[in-house]
Design brief:
With 651 residues, the chain is of the alpha/beta class. It contains 23 helices and ten strands.
Length: 651
Amino acid sequence: MSFFVDGGRRILDTETRKARKVRATLVNFARYFRRYWPGLLISCLLILTAAWATVNVPEVVSQAVDCYIVPQATRLDACWYTEIQPEWLNNSGGQEAINARLSGVAGLVGIMLGLLLLNAASTGLGFHAMRWSAQNVIRQLQRDLFTHIQRLPLGYYSQHEGGDVMSRVTNDMDTIQQTFSFALLQVLLSVVIVVWIVVRMLQTNLIYALVSLAVVPVMLWTSGYFSQQARRAFREARKSIGSVNADLQESIAGAREVQAFSREEESIAQFEASNDANRRANVKAALFTSALNPVLEALGYVSLGTVVVFGGLAILGQISFLSANAVSIGMVFAFIAYTQRANQPIQQIALLWTNVQSGIAGGERIFDLLATPVEDEVDSSAAPMPPIRGRVVFEDVEAQYKEGEKVLKGISFAAEMGQTVAIVGPTGAGKTTIINLLPRFYDPSAGRVLIDGIDIRTVDRHSLRRQIGIVLQDTYLFSTSVMENIRYGKLNATDEEVIAAAKMVAAHDFIERLPQGYQTVLGERGSGLSQGQRQLIAIARVALMNPRILILDEATSSVDTRTERVIQAAFEKLLKGRTSFVIAHRLSTIRSADQVLLLRDGQIVERGTHQSLLAQRGAYYDLYMSQFRQQEEAEAVLALGNQPEAAHPLA
């Protein structure tokens, strides 16, 4: 439980932190957006057009009021497309003057509708252009990221949790998508509108503008405070939902254990506790987000009230620093409209700026992962591995996963072509490290690994691995048909070749008994098959590959003795003519080996055949007496009890 929760919190903290390499991250984003610059340019032009339309609507209102509805002598030279007639100032001139004023108002209403339509169309098209560019960038970024992950060395995964990598591919990518598809452009639009409105107000009437904008700093501070508190609250909510998901995942994955130990009630109680913590965290987060809008709305009303009160008093000549000649009724209406249009962008900036920061932080994490060296970069100048014959030599090999902590210390041995080498020893002795060096999952820190006299560090990894077959203890099968799972060893193999490989390792019979035979689609990791059946499919996959070097990593340790005999028979066919390395805890695998290496603390302490090592009565003899002797007796009992008509263990 703690592993998932702590891991989720660590991932969450990195998601919600602010980006540190902002400039480098933006440069990387610019490199991806460069290909789609037309969409960005169109988007920016449309957004500027939308902002221009928004800012000019209040001026149209001012024109309508001061030029036609309540004509002002101070605006004689400020009207756009008409001159104020003297008779309009005292509402004289008869019906002809009224018709002229109504015509002017109608014209301005048309201009206003045009500006509003232009604003709506420009905003919609601008966001569409930005989404088009962003979606293309996200597609390319996801493709590059997935390709990069496929090529990362296994050493990366030994130092980084898979959950963190998944978080970068899913959560961080989703945050980037939201940022560039909506949040970033909305913030830019809001900033342009607010700045443009402030400049226009200051240009119109400096003193009146300063009075009208007096509440804006309070709104900005309030928005920042509530947004910060909401961000912290949502961070706690995300942590709590991580606990809920962890409990759910463990309950599903461990359903057998929960029911076997009758711990259903305890599991439900634990889930209830984490679920209740998630509820409290979300209520707290909702408190701040729900409070922000009413507070900003109230401050918006205060701002509007300030505009109206000071504007009205100025028109009435009650404020000395705002003379009636400087402030007109139309200007008051315009400032009201300016204030209304500035309030909403200020709120949007506060709410969306956190998303922009998170998007940049997510991009930083993704580009950090993309900057991790991959195997292909190391192998760019390496020669392809020639066809392997099978002689393997370790020359004074040392290996370490962490600096200064040696896992292998001076390992030297030779495996001749076609020999089987069994590697035994306690957990942590270095057995798996030896076989990881052969396909170059890791490279030795000292010494050399030679295949047919060639230092494998000088050859391309892919050409090397295509000639090495590996069967692991924990067999991985894909959620596809049995046919495709076996064909994974050789993608261009025909159906006949796949069936021949299955027959070679005695997997054909049980596959034929499956509901759709070779076309049966397997569940996750091969669910629905027994461990022995999954192992035989994995062996058939390697048999189809026809490798010259074969690695078996405790391939029979998870099956019973009866099933092991079936798998062992498949191995005997597969091992013929191949150089093989076997890590085994079963005596039956070791007895037939040409060479047995006993490892302890990263060193070979004894080597020889099974019989010769027993005769030495050393460390291997002690291991045999404590572990393998009981297996030998169990196998003898099983052999006596076997009858010809006994059912196939994999049936």
